[in-house]
Amino acid sequence: MSTTPLTIHPLGLAAGRDAQVLHRAASPSFSGWLEHTRPAGCCARPIRLTGTIAAVDRDTGRITGQLHTDELPDRTLYKACGNRRESVCPDCAWVYQGDAYQVVCRGLTGGKGVPASVSRHPVIFATFTAPSFGPVHHRHIPRHTCRNRQRCDCRPAPCRARSNASTCPHGRPAACFARHDADDPRLGQPLCLDCYDHAHQVVWNYFSGELWRRTKQAADRRLAAICRKRGIPLVRVVSASGKVRWVPPVRVSHGKVAEMQRRAAVHFHVLLRLDGVDPDDPDALVPPPAGITVDDLEDAVRVAARQITVTTPAHPDQPEGWLVAWGEQVDVRRINTVGGELTDGKVAAYFAKYATKATEATGHSSARLTPATVDDYADPEGDHVARLIDACWHLGRPTHTDTSSGAATGNDRQDSLDAKPNIYGGLRRWAHMLGFGGHFLTKARRYSVTFRLLRDTRATYRREEDDQPADMITVGTLTYLGSGWLSEGDALLANTAARQRRERRRIGREELAHETWLTGAAA
Predict the structure, then answer these.
(1) What is the full DSSP assignment across 129-176?
(2) CB of 132 within 8 A of CB of 191?
(3) Nearest Cα to 267, choosing from 502, 440, 9?
(4) What is the pLDDT of residue 427?
(5) Three-state SS across 243-255?
(6) Rounded distance, CA 199 to CA 385, Å?
């Protein structure tokens, strides 16, 4: 059990918290408490569990030991919350970001069970954006002269310069001559809130996942047509049940991350890797046929993005539905090209960064909304985000049919007893996400390793680190007790200890890498 002293700066203690820290640190069980809270180290709101923990023999199922949480420090078991959002829990998001990096990077370079040969497969990096729902303030730099885009100091062009600066139907200027700074709060805000189509935008966010699914299918069909045109035969595949199928000799595996723009519309960054099909082992990752190149993959993606649209089902407010399509800016780039900026590591880090984000770029961050809390955020006459949330709640209302007029009606805040399900009802569930209900990081099954594999590997390592016998498993019968540390002093002590452990590990890794480099240089 580690007894390394903590270094806590006295100025970092708030009034009242210093007494809690001193009381905990002076207790005889302080070292045991630190070790007990280590799994939840830097978590902002750890989960507190109560119940029984049993040690069970893996072979016989016999219980060899049992412990109740009443015998543990604080009479509870601490577990990290595991939240991926950096705005909610920075430490758990840091762990999730590391896993996301591995998931994305292994699909590009191999490793952790993925063959290294995938690094030679054609790969493109595509960005799919939403269309315009009305003019917004934006920052445009026609030509970058800076060396580092992350610290760009280039002078932007005027926002929306117009030679004939007229006004919109609501009397607001239809032009903006400002050169916005990167942190200008006006960025992403509509020039006229009343002209902006907030309903269409939340519907686009809601159905963007379906739009991507159809686009991926269209790209697959395009590649299959190219194979037929060039005389590349289909591949005969026999399933585990003995069923024979003839499939195209190529398939596209993807990893996708969603990014919420400042205007509160999502856009997708997608890695698309071209794989072949092995008739003897359909799950194997093999190179595509020699007749299919990265040019064909890029052509298939561009054609699919132009062709595919989704017409949403009828809604009482829009009987003909809404058209969901990609915006004009579909950017397709190649990775690891000579002189190019995009490398495997940079792209993986880019994906991992956005995997821990949600709606923070819009200035909004809240938990799931309910009829009791929605009025705190939704306002049809409010700012941009408030109108988007109101649109989600309004469009997602349960509706019923008025037999006298044949019209569908509904109440935004109070549901009728005779209301019928609304296919747009999910908009209420995802109103806090401004309509987007998908996960921020998804991938094809064959693209790379899974989060579960990474977490299971980490759990196995921790068991071995704690010298737990391989033939022994831990079974917990636990119930939820609460969340958060018992006091601010406990949070400070646990977080400080975790940060120091992490810093020691970082220094150890750097020293080990340096020693390895010295050994190699000497040889």
Answers:
(1) ----SS-B-----SS---S-GGG--PPPPPSB--SS--B-TTS-BS-B
(2) no
(3) 440
(4) 95
(5) CEEEECCEEEEEE
(6) 12
User: Sorting pLDDT into bands at 50, 70 and 90, what band is 523?
Assistant: low
Taking residues 343-360, report their average pLDDT: 91
Q: Are 400 and 408 in contact (CB under 8 A)?
A: yes
Of 16-30, 75-89, 358-372, give the lowest mean pLDDT range. 16-30
Asked if 169 and 195 touch (Cβ cutoff 8 Å), the reply is: yes
Cα Rg of the chain (Å, integer): 28
CA dihedral 239, 244, 245, 250 (to 10 degrees): 60
Q: What is the 3-state secondary structure (H, E, C) of 24-63?
A: HHHCCCHHHHHHHCHHHCCCCCCEEEEEEEEEEECCCCCE
Q: What per-residue confidence (pLDDT) applies to 508?
A: 80
Average pLDDT over residues 403-410: 40
The residue to which tokens 């040969």 are assigned: 117
What tokens does 383 get? 């700012």
In 3D, which of 253, 397, 255, 232 has the Cα closest to residue 315?
397
246: tokens are 């003839």
Q: How confident is the model at residue 144, as a pLDDT? A: 74
Beta bridge partners of 257: 269, 441
Q: Which DSSP state fits 71?
A: G
Q: What is the pLDDT of residue 412?
A: 47
User: Which residues face 114 on adjacent strands?
Assistant: 111
Burial track 330-347 (b if 16+ CB lie within 10 A, e otherwise): bebeebeeeeeebebeeb
DSSP helix, strand, coil percent of the chain (3-state; round to 5) = 35, 20, 45
Per residue in 199-258, pLDDT tens? 999 999 999 999 999 999 999 999 999 999 999 999 998 887 888 889 899 999 999 999
| 248: its two tokens | 């195209």
Q: For 356-443, where are the alpha helices, taking DSSP H only?
A: 384-395, 426-429
Cβ neighbours of 463 (radius 10 Å): 15
Token pair 């950017």 is found at: 331
Strands 250-260 and 244-247: unpaired
* Amino acid letter for position 155: R
Whether 219 and 304 have beta carbons less than 8 Å apart is answered as yes
**Which has the closest alpha carbon to 114: 439, 353, 447, 489?**
447
Q: Are 381 and 170 in contact (CB under 8 A)?
A: no
* Angle, alpha carbons 419-420-426 (nearest 5°): 105
Question: Phi, psi at residue 497, to the nearest 5°?
Answer: -60, -40
156 and 180 Cβ atoms separated by less than 8 Å: yes
Q: What is the pTM of this model?
A: 0.84
DSSP for residue 95: H
Residues 6+ apart with CB under 8 A from 64: 55, 56, 57, 472
Contact 126, 301 (CB under 8 A): yes
The tens digit of pLDDT for each residue in 282-341 reads: 889 999 999 899 999 999 999 999 999 999 999 999 999 999 999 988 999 998 776 667
Q: What pLDDT is attached to residue 400?
A: 54
